[in-house]
Q: What sequence folds into this?
């Protein structure tokens, strides 16, 4: 009996709890509203659509945990997307193109990291500026949406790997990297740097280094997201990632990552993304007029956010 | 002793504005060398009008920056787009109807600002997140109300903002100048303005002194929303029509303009005149880029780089090592 | 072992260290004594790597060392504790303790089992074994400082520097610290021990360096000088223990102006009742965190509703605005966080309350500044261009013109040098002479003695665990009596 109570207690303290609960609650509620919403085909296609945001959510969470914020990841994803299309269209072999896209994404992440960690710019405003730069870059590479990819790519993405949806690979790789990183001593140092960079510095933590890692990793996640969305869409669009940065941040907050840094984990934001993705799908497929859809999703997002923050406050982690 | 102290025009204030003035001059000269058309009365008049629109947005943003607590209003563009589209849906045939419509759009913006302010102060949602989410909700609301239809066939009164009063100076420009002057005077010479700057400087200390910090902070967002609402109305009058998201770019530009003008994003220090100069700098830059037929992508890159450079010279965090 | 040569450091206008040289031998426990602004913290921070000196060099075991960050310092065998605490609530006790030297498996992975083992041992030595799985955020201040101490010990460095680690410790904690330091010394290590507590210096250290005004006033074996001599060196003149100010009896006498029956102290689940007379000075003493701050902050409406009688009329104060309306003033020791408007001028800071809250036309700024003895070039210069002491004087000046009924002060002279401190006391005394009452919390017993010592219309109350355990008046207000009252004896009697 005691063990059960202990388990329950530690589950309640898990920062990812609200996101997990919200997601399953919506999933269940949805099954009553929408036919076939628990069918494998629906779930897989929904997962495939949500994967790009999940990738970005991972990167966003790590940056927030280390005490900063990055709102340029959506723009980075757009760059990755159009770059990949352009490279493939120019005949570059798939493997090389993938490597180049990931390298470019990590380079953009490195720029963010340099400006913020080394040059000490304010992360919010600086990534605001770099998101404009990266959007511009994407537009320069592909001013008009278009292009196409080999059918094998889409087929791979929409297919299965070892019984699981192949799309999951794209976010599982960054997730695995993060979990490994967390197991090293760097993990707790990153959290320390996020909570209070001065205290971490005095404790001998290489604050700048940890933050640069976080930003480069976020770039890598954006690159993975770009690969995912390119495989999913089969085309390039310079504005594709515009709204994703905000969704990722909302997913992170709903997932229990504290915006002040040092608290939370990536698992929560994955469920947060799933929750947000489910909202979009539900609203899209419901009989609500398209003119109300945007408003409805906006309101649901707002309330989801408020709820998650209220929950965070109650668990005693409110810090401003 | 005279009160309030006469120090609106002293060396420190001027020194902050000097770089912007220099850059404006440089850009004007550069534009003129590129094309004689640049400094034509018509072109400059149009630049001044666009700048005035941005000035409204920047003034709104400045108020929020001044209020401190990491204040920022990323819903300004959304509010502007909303009133640009929804405003003309009201009857604006007679001056009375026009006045009523103007008050209504200001009220709409103010309500958005109130929601922002409440979310930020009462629910402790960070301003960045709250205003960004609100902008989503506002867009949704706008779409819902307008059913996607753009605004066309505007009343003559509204289009009157384009009327020329003096060479280069149109009605809209005068509105902009009046707005900046009024804001600056309120900031320096009235208790309300001084309270705003004090609260933004150190909210804890201001609270201890007995100031109503929450009320003043929320009021800052209400003002910002109201001004943005008015600006959207002016925007549709200037442009002659309105479409969804047409004012998107004003948000980022207002942030940049305010910072160029010497406002501290941490709060407590700022200048509306500086914001106006910053707006002028940005619009001059945009016009030059447009004149050079630089593609939109490159324009974004240049704007972003410019903002990054401004940020790194103005708003860096403290060194870890002293 | 450790040798600093010709070290200087200037912050803006303030010269923190002036050509200081210091040598500490291996196996020595060196105390560093100095008042506020003496440079002792800066000196240690230079060796610790958080501050880079303008001039000078540092040598360890004879070799010159370039220390530009705490990581460099640790690599060179120097570990420092932080006065502001470097332990973090988002990590576990174990992670905090081992953060600087976490054991690794296979070169990269954190060896949590080994860490926990080492952690357990250290906590046992520190008397904190029961805290092994506790949440850091729930630990009281003294245990946090012990954790900070343990974190430094675990790194087993050749040179250990403790920056005011004992200020929040109970005597049993200090005993443990003393024991561990002697053990450390026996291993051939070197210790620098900054403290302003004489008894600790005498019982722990082998020698002491006295710092004054950014210079090293001298280094002596601990047996060479007595307390008064050391204090004189600290202040730079003959220091008379227990210096006092003029008595401040005023005409109106002791009628009560504020009476609060229930000031809650939530941390201990108790409440305090207080009656304040006209023109009275009440000093509030006690170990840090025993309810002193709660008293002044609750009265000013910062910690929830409080019922009280103000000049005979019952009121409920819910927020600072109402408190200020009733004529209260609040002065915090946290200048940066709760006092200074750093983007504003001296004039703006001075008139903030009078102009914006009381809505009165302020008097001549220059006159007020002269009365509070602040030197400045221009009333429009930024407040931050003044020294810390002068900034605080301006903040007090903010309230003088409002003729407050009651001044509430929470350790207002923290971090301010001795001279400015006495000027602030004179300011307060002047205000009470003009009819204001003063309730002042202070962590410096001597200060309370100076302030209250020889006035009939004053008393010192001592708090312990949320209750007033002692009230001292008149000639009973001495440093020894206050200190004794802050930790009641085990049998309940006061020594």
A:
């Amino acid at each position: 009996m005691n063990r059960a109570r202990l388990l329950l207690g530690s589950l309640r303290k898990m920062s990812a709890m609200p996101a997990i609960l919200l997601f399953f609650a919506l999933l269940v509620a949805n099954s009553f509203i929408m036919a076939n919403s628990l069918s494998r085909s629906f779930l897989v296609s929904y997962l495939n659509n949500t994967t790009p945001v999940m990738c970005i959510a991972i990167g966003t969470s790590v940056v927030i945990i280390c005490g900063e914020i990055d709102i340029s990841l959506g723009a980075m994803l757009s760059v990755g997307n159009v770059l990949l299309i352009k490279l493939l269209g120019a005949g570059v072999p798939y493997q090389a193109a993938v490597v180049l896209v990931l390298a470019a994404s990590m380079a953009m992440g490195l720029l963010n990291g340099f400006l913020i960690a080394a040059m000490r710019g304010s992360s919010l405003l600086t990534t605001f500026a770099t998101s404009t730069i990266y959007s511009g870059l994407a537009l320069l590479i592909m001013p008009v949406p278009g292009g196409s990819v080999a059918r094998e790519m889409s087929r791979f993405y929409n297919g299965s790997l070892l019984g699981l949806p192949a799309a999951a690979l794209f976010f599982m790789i960054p997730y695995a990297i993060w979990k490994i990183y967390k197991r090293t001593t760097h993990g707790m140092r990153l959290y320390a740097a996020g909570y209070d960079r001065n205290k971490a510095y005095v404790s001998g933590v290489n604050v700048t280094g940890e933050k640069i890692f976080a930003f480069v990793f976020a770039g890598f996640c954006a690159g993975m997201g770009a690969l995912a969305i390119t495989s999913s869409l089969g085309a390039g669009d310079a504005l594709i990632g515009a709204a994703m940065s905000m969704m990722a941040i909302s997913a992170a907050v709903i997932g229990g990552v504290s915006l002040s840094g040092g608290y939370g984990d990536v698992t929560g934001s994955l469920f947060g993304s799933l929750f947000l993705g489910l909202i979009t799908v539900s609203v899209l497929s419901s009989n609500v007029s398209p003119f109300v859809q945007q408003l409805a999703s906006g309101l649901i997002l707002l309330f989801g956010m408020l709820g998650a923050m209220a929950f965070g406050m109650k668990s005693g982690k409110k810090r401003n | 002793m005279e009160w309030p102290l006469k120090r609106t025009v002293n060396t420190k204030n001027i020194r902050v504005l000097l770089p912007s003035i220099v850059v404006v001059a440089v850009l004007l000269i550069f534009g003129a060398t590129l094309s004689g058309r640049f400094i034509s009365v018509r072109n400059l008049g149009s630049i001044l009008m666009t700048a005035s629109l941005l000035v409204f947005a920047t003034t709104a943003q400045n108020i929020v920056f001044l209020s401190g607590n990491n204040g920022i209003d990323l819903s300004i563009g959304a509010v502007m787009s909303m009133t640009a589209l929804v405003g003309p849906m009201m009857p604006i045939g007679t001056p009375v109807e026009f006045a009523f419509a103007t008050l209504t759009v200001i009220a709409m913006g103010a309500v958005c600002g109130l929601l922002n302010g409440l979310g930020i102060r009462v629910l402790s949602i960070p301003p960045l997140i709250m205003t960004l989410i609100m902008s989503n909700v506002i867009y949704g609301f706008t779409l819902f109300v307008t059913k996607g239809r753009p605004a066309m066939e505007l009343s003559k009164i509204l289009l009157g903002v384009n009327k020329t009063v003096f060479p280069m100076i149109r009605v809209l420009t005068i509105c902009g100048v009046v707005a900046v002057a009024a804001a600056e005077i309120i900031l320096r010479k009235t208790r309300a303005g001084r309270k705003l700057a004090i609260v933004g400087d150190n909210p804890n200390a201001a609270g201890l002194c007995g100031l109503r910090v929450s009320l003043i902070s929320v009021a800052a967002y209400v003002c910002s929303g109201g001004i943005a609402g008015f600006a959207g109305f002016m925007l549709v009058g200037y442009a002659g029509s309105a479409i969804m998201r047409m004012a998107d770019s004003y948000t980022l530009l207002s942030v940049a303009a305010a910072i160029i003008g010497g406002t501290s994003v941490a709060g407590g220090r700022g200048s509306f005149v500086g914001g106006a100069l910053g707006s002028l700098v940005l619009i001059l830059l945009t016009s030059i880029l447009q004149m050079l037929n630089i593609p939109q992508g490159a324009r974004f890159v240049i704007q972003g780089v410019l903002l990054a450079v401004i940020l790194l010279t103005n708003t860096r965090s403290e060194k870890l090592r002293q | 072992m450790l040798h600093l040569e010709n070290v200087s450091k200037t912050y803006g206008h303030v010269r923190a260290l002036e050509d200081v040289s210091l040598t500490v031998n291996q196996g020595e426990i060196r105390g560093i004594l100095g008042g506020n602004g003496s440079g002792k913290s800066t000196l240690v921070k230079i060796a610790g790597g958080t501050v880079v000196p303008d001039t000078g060099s540092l040598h360890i075991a004879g070799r010159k060392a370039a220390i530009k960050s705490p990581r460099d310092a640790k690599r060179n065998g120097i570990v420092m504790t932080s006065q502001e605490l470097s332990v973090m609530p988002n990590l576990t006790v174990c992670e905090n303790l081992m953060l600087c030297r976490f054991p690794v498996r296979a070169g990269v992975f954190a060896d949590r089992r080994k860490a926990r083992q080492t952690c357990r041992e250290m906590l046992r030595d520190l008397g904190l074994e029961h805290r092994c799985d506790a949440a850091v955020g729930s630990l009281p201040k003294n245990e946090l400082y012990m954790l900070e101490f343990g974190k430094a010990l675990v790194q087993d460095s050749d040179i250990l520097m403790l920056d005011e680690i004992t200020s929040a410790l109970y005597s049993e904690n200090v005993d443990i610290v003393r024991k561990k330091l002697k053990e450390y010394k026996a291993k051939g290590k070197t210790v620098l021990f900054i403290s302003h507590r004489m008894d600790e210096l005498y019982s722990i250290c082998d020698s002491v360096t006295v710092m004054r005004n950014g210079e090293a006033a001298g280094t002596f074996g601990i047996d060479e000088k007595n307390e008064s001599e050391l204090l004189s060196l600290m202040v730079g003149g003959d220091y008379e223990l227990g210096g006092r100010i003029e008595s401040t009896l005023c005409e109106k006498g002791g009628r009560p102006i504020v009476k609060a029956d229930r000031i809650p102290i939530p941390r201990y689940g108790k409440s305090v009742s207080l009656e304040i007379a006209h023109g009275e000075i009440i000093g509030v003493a006690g170990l840090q965190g025993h309810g002193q701050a709660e008293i002044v902050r609750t009265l000013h409406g910062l910690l929830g509703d409080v019922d009280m009688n103000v000049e005979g009329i019952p009121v409920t104060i819910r927020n600072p605005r109402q408190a200020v309306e009733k004529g209260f003033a609040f002065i915090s020791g946290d200048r940066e966080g709760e006092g200074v408007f750093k983007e504003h001028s001296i004039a703006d800071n001075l008139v903030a309350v009078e102009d914006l809250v009381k809505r009165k036309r302020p008097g001549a700024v220059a006159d007020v500044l002269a009365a509070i003895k602040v030197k400045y070039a221009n009333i429009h210069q930024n407040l931050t261009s003044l020294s810390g002491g002068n900034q605080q004087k301006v903040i007090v000046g903010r309230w003088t013109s409002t003729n407050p009924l009651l001044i509430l002060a929470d350790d207002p002279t923290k971090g301010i040098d001795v001279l400015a401190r006495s000027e602030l006391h004179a300011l307060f005394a002047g205000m009470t002479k003009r009819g204001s009452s003063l309730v002042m919390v202070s962590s410096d017993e001597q200060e309370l003695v100076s302030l209250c010592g020889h006035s009939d219309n004053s008393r010192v109350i001592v708090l312990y665990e949320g209750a007033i355990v002692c009230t001292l008046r008149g000639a009973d207000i001495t440093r020894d009596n206050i200190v004794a009252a802050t930790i009641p004896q085990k049998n309940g009697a006061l020594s």
